[in-house]
Amino acid sequence: MDMTLFIVLAALFIFVLATNEITRLHRSYLVFHFLMMLWPFFIYLVNMTPNLRLEWIFLKIAFAGLAFSTYAWFIFSLVLIGAVDRYRKRNILLAAGPAILSAAIAAFNPGYLFVSMGERGWADRFFGPLFWALILIQVIYVFAAIGHMLWARSKTSDKMFKDQLSLCLTGCMFFVTFAIADILINIVFSGKTIIPALTSMGTVLAMVCFIVAITNYNLVRIFSVAQRELIDNMAVGIVFLNNQGIIIGKNRSADRFLNLAPGQALNLDQLLDRVADQEFRYQFTHTFKSSDFETLQTEVTLGESPPKRVLINVGKIESSKKVLGRIITLTDITELNNLLDEISRKNTVLNQQNEELKRIQEELFRMEQSRRNLLSNISHDLRSPMTHIQG
Questions:
Q1: How far apart, in whole angstroms, are the C-alpha atoms of residue 50 and residue 123?
Q2: Which residues, including other chains, have CB under 8 Å from residue 18's CB and lie 6 or more apart?
Q3: I want to staple 198 with a disulfide (CB 3.0 to 4.6 A). Which of 27, 182, 321, 361 is the partner?
Q4: Direct distance between the N- and C-terminal alpha carbons of the chain, in angstroms, rounded to an integer
């Protein structure tokens, strides 16, 4: 049973490694996952080997892996909620002290106060007071991780992040429930009935929840990674949507255009409300929802006093040819439009002035023709009398 669960955990480990971009969140999870795999694997080896000396070695490795896995669990929770940077490295290293102590207890087993085995080996095991000290340390780590996630969940207004934390907390509850059941059934009230691999089953269920959380809700964390000072200080508003049209992130400039918070739905019809062309509005909305586009672009009017002319560009967020959501950029082109309107107005005035000059030129040309005709007539009228006088 333990070997089967180890194979399942190994398959999940490979799945996460192969299907995700390796961020700090994934690195911390993979370390945590690897350490959790040690328990079912080496407990399986303990139950399979007939060599008592090898049993001891495998048993020590299993409990040492368990000791460090709960510490890795704690660190993973800090990375998940984005709180690890608030702790100094020295404090992070000091937090590993109990895990190192637990691993040392399991490795050295002083005076057999941790565990002792009879003639039948692991089947005749007896747990001493140091075993319960190790269990207490693991409980502290696990509940510290749960406490941090509960605190982060109560503070955030991001619905998607809340769902991610809820799924991780569900995984924690699976592990804690099965681990407690293992201790109560197989240690405290141990009798003829032994239920093997309870802790391992809880571990598998917990890992499945964690993998779903960091895979399905990975887009939320991608935005957290991408949201750096440069993006927040851009004049262009940037909004990230999932495939359901829910806002999963935005930069600060987006607040100048949309009064919406992450977790709320973007009402595209309301955004296009002032677009006069009804056919264009329908076509734009249909194409936006179908994902059958490379880019979409339109101009809209937002706000009342004063209204803003906003250029909207829509693109797709894709990974491995799979559409994960939309990215919308909002650019204020009010001043540009005003400048273009002013240029257009001045061009109109200039055209009018050109027309007036053209009219004046035509009038001057006609007057010049009249003057020439007049002079020609006068010259002709004077020529006849002069001829007579000369004659």
A1: 11
A2: none
A3: 182
A4: 146
Asked if 181 and 194 count as a contact pair (C-beta separation under 8 A), the reply is no
DSSP state of 265: B
Residues belonging to the chain: 391
Q: How many CB atoms lie within 10 A of CB 245?
A: 15
- Angstrom CA distances, 352 to 341, 347, 364, stand at 16, 8, 18
Tokens at residue 160, please?
């998607």
Greatest alpha-carbon pair distance for the chain in Å reads: 166
Asked if 299 and 309 touch (Cβ cutoff 8 Å), the reply is yes
Question: What whole-number distance in Å separates Cα of residue 204 and Cα of residue 7?
Answer: 10
* Gap between the Cα atoms of 265 and 120, Å rounded: 63
Per-residue pLDDT for 343 more than 80?
A: yes
Reduced to 3 states, what is the DSSP secondary structure of residue 288? helix
Q: Are 34 and 17 in contact (CB under 8 A)?
A: no
Quickly tell me which residue has 């002290």 as its tokens. Answer: 97
Q: What is the C-alpha separation between 3 and 265, in angstroms, rounded?
A: 46
Query: Per the structure block, which two tokens stand in for 3?
Result: 């070997």
Residue 81 phi/psi, 5° resolution? Answer: -90, 0
Please tell me the distance from the alpha carbon of residue 153 to that of residue 348, in angstroms, as a whole number: 60
Burial class of 116 by CB neighbour count within 10 A (0 to 12, 13 to 18, 19+): middle
Bridge partners of 65?
none
Per-residue model confidence as pLDDT tens digits over 348-379? 899 998 999 998 998 888 888 888 888 777 77
> What is d(CA 38, CA 6) in angstroms, rounded to the nearest whole number?
8
Strand partners, 249: 240
Retrieve residue 82's tokens.
Answer: 């984005």
Q: What is the DSSP letter of 258?
A: -
Q: Which of 301, 269, 262 is nearest to 284 (CA)?
A: 269
Please compute Rg for the chain using Cα positions. 39
**What CA–CA distance (Å, rounded) separates 353 from 348?**
9
Distance between CA atoms of residues 18 and 316, nearest Å = 23
